[in-house]
Amino acid sequence: MYLKFKYLHVYGSLRWQMVNKQLKETGSDGRITCPKNCGSHYKSKSGLYNHLKYECGIDPQFKCNYCGKSFARHSNMRRHMLVHLPGSVKKEAEDDNCNPLWFYNTDSQ
């Protein structure tokens, strides 16, 4: 049982070897540059991890069941799917060809 966890630990540390090297090579502003040279910069290791897992060189993995639009992140797809709900303010505006800028609530101050 110990060996199983020992190897998982080794695998996890090898997986982060590239990321940790990049952390040591951060710029003077402290931001982390993507090691795949795509030009993206992140303030945290978790931001870089999510970028490498979902975005960098990867086709969008999540697809809307209603219209087929693809998204890199699940949370963005879920937010998009709200437009397909009956009675959705955004859906009604799209049907009326309204200007989408009025969706922002300025009365919440």
From TrEMBL:
Domain C2H2-type: 32-60, 62-84
SMART domains: ZnF_C2H2 (SM00355)
The entry's keywords: Metal-binding, Zinc, Zinc-finger
GO molecular function, one term: zinc ion binding
Pfam families, per the entry: zf-C2H2 (PF00096)
InterPro entries (alphabetical): Znf_C2H2_sf, Znf_C2H2_type
Highest taxon listed in the record's lineage: Eukaryota
Protein name (Swiss-Prot/TrEMBL): C2H2-type domain-containing protein
Organism: Macrosiphum euphorbiae (potato aphid)
